[in-house]
Design goal:
Oligomer: single chain
Largest sheet: none
Order of helices and strands: HH
Distance between the termini: 45 Å
Strand content: under 5%
Length: 72
Amino acid sequence: MPAKSKKADDRSLEEILDEVEIIMEKMESDKPSLEESFVLYEQGIKALKTATQKIDMVEKKLEILRSENDGD
């Protein structure tokens, strides 16, 4: 999992999705306790939210580029 000191916004989309994959693997293979499962679930949801925000930002940038291109 990425270092705790690294801000979520500084991570690439690939790093965030790698974190989600690691969390999923831990939940499937490590047989965590119920409490650990809740913590992993929360981490996964936060990572997915960050990934969604990054994807939304890219989509907005693409829309701007398209509209600028259409104006030429």
